[in-house]
């Protein structure tokens, strides 16, 4: 696998636009591979377009704890946030998911492109323990673009709390 290394002083662009996510990955010194895949309509399509299995497509979920208090939860593509587990981990009785406008205001990213890397606020990150030891793909802040990174390195760079915070995705 070919990963990119940061180049000091290089202005980073993805899909012809400046990308805070790629700049943040470079600033963290994380090796990564950019994947340009165009629009996708499902996790299965995203996995196929990225050349990975569904669990390796990581969903970045924005969670609201309170007024102007959010966090990111990283979940494997085949799993869903377990609200009871997450509330217990955080020691709170109530959490919610912001609507699309509030998520954009909290992160600087549109839904479907959200990543903790380069977000307008460095909210705390919780990563499901099943991400460890894998290569994962994350949104890169732009539609149709993702990055492949080593999960352990990404979790360390984000100073994420790692815990069991998911359940299997419900059957549809």
TrEMBL record:
Residues 1-23 form the signal peptide. Keywords: Signal. It comes from the Bacteria. Residues 37-151 form the YbaK/aminoacyl-tRNA synthetase-associated domain. The keyword DNA-binding does not apply. InterPro entries: YbaK/aa-tRNA-synt-asso_dom_sf, YbaK/aa-tRNA-synth-assoc-dom. This is YbaK/EbsC family protein. It comes from Micromonospora coerulea.
